[in-house]
Fold this protein.
Amino acid sequence: MTAAAGMDSPSSSPVRGTPLLKDELDIVIPTIRNLDFLEMWRPFFQPYHLIVVQDGDPSKTIRVPEGFDYELYNRNDIKRILGPKAACISFKDSACRCFGYMVSKKKYIYTIDDDCFVAKDPSGKEIDALEQHISNLLTPSTPYFFNTLYDPYREGTDFVRGYPFSLREGTPTVVSHGLWLNIPDYDAPTQLVKPRERNTRYVDAVLTIPRGTLFPMCGMNLAFDRELIGSAMYFGLMGDGQPIGRYDDMWAGWCIKVICDHLRLGVKTGLPYIWHSKASNPFVNFKKEYKGIFWQEELIPFFQTVVLPKDCTTVQKCYIELSKQVREKLGKIDPYFTKLADAMVTWIEAWEELNPPGTAAEVVNGSSNGK
């Protein structure tokens, strides 16, 4: 199937209020199956444009419910659009979603997995995850000094006594990392020892992740400013033909956090919650994660100590520099990291081909030019 754009017949389902950033945000969904899960999200997602990235067999037809504005790309489309550079896009892994980030022309991206449904808050009200993500992105972050009442920009709270006034302006927020009720995002060993564990704790909080602190980013409920950080949101080489899987979003999270710290940009985590409905097979997961479980003990110290030069004033420059250090320092662990470093460069080249310089903002020390 070619990169088809579709707008099916209008639905009679009501849309709630005026959708925020309707013309500035794309929803990216990686999938191997029909997108029936969108029916539950219809009141929240229908006003927005969807980018569906079909993984697996490109001859299979993916059904999208009527009433959604979408474009769908399969592996054949990715090869046609990127040519030889398509090798940097993972196959048979949800990491393929980052192709959707590349072809989008919107300022913001929200990405969600097809086994995630609308959650409810403790009062029983359905959670508009997209609205909360947008709120997170449109208010500043506070990575340089921790506010003990968490996000000071939320209604009903503020900076506490002793918080420096010079830091209250905050920094631009470029990533909003949401959480999950029901099935937690556990690794395979934890799944095996806690097969029945479910997350029922709803914590009504949004926190800025402090500068210098890494975190395990999960891609199944994630929003970000595509213009300001999108070119670093590469989910690596995973899945078919690769020695590792299920580290795609975490790799991207480590990379973007180092770059955000360098460029004085902010990352938030906490609200909103979605309902994660399906636990993946822990034995299959263990085969995918096996090497990563060992490698991460060296990857984390690498990212904790990596230093980007002062002349890295844009996300792309930071990412190319990071690829050099990955090749030099992590290539000693396994040849896979040399291959990954090459793919990081290819990703930037492909990104710039589809998004020529000057079409998006350039980040310089926590500000943006050209806006």
